Amino acid sequence: MKDLxxxxxxxxxxxxxxxxxxxxxxxxxxxxxxxxxxxRLATLFYEPSTRTRLSFxxxxxxxxxxxIGFSEQGSSSVAKGESVADTARTVSxxxxxxxxxxxxEGAPLVAAEAVDIPVINAGDGGHHHPTQTLTDLLTIxxxxxxxxxxxxxxxxxxxxxRTVHSLISALSRYPNxxxxxxxxxxxxxxxxxxxxxxEKNNIPYxxxxxxxxxxxxxxxxxxxxxxxxxxxxxxDYVRLKDTYILTPAKLANAKxxxxxxxxxxxxxxxxTAIDKDPRAAYxxxxxxxxxxxxxxIMKLLEA
Length: 303
Ligand code: NCD
Hints:
Order of helices and strands: HEHEHEHEHEHEHEEHEH
Radius of gyration: 19 Å
Bound molecules: N-carbamoyl-L-aspartate
Strand order of the largest sheet: 7-6-5-8-9
Structural class: alpha/beta
Number of strands: 9
Distance between the termini: 15 Å
Oligomer: single chain
Shape: globular
């Protein structure tokens, strides 16, 4: 495997091994400080990002490597009309590995096909976000001690939210996973995810429209933001944006060992009053993102 474009590029064994390495990095960070010495990561971000880009860059620095890149299309030759393939070819003259985020589905795959160095998809449109999923899986395994036997609630914008698509695709491989998909009717999970992943693999799932009717059953509650930038009109966004606001009252019937995840950024969908609840795992999740990306960079660079 040269690139990571879709979480399906990794076998379950690969995923479990990455989690194991990430846990070892957390326990013994000093052992990894030189692993990517003289290697360079390029971060090509055609869409806004805080956590993903900075965690990739921190991951490479903590492995002893260096980082180049851009975080705005306007500051590179993209603004002059350069194609993704040509930009990737150029960058591959200076870097050993690329992490790319792009608003168009498939752009990181185009880059991967144009170059010989590994390309990591750091989010492509409403499609996939495999490194967020690796972060989510590391977080779930650290919080719960397992990745199987769970009822997982995914709440919010299940239509455009790429993190949910990749997460369902990954978790569906583990035994006894059940999903509760919580969304307004307009933002339901897309047909390909429902049919190709859930139905084809006989994964039990139900679709509901409120958190309250599902919360008591959940082991994981994965909240997401309504993806404003992927809406066709602002009026629909405004109407749907505050459909779900998780408050302490809505957790009244939740399990004491529920884990609440969110890929972040949060807009209004989790009240800040939840942050103090020990079940709120979303800032621990951010931290985990760096360690699993370190494990992934080492794997792809065979370092
Ligand atoms: C997510 C993304 O970019 O898809 N953010 C992230 O990478 N942590 C989620 C989002 O933007 O809502």
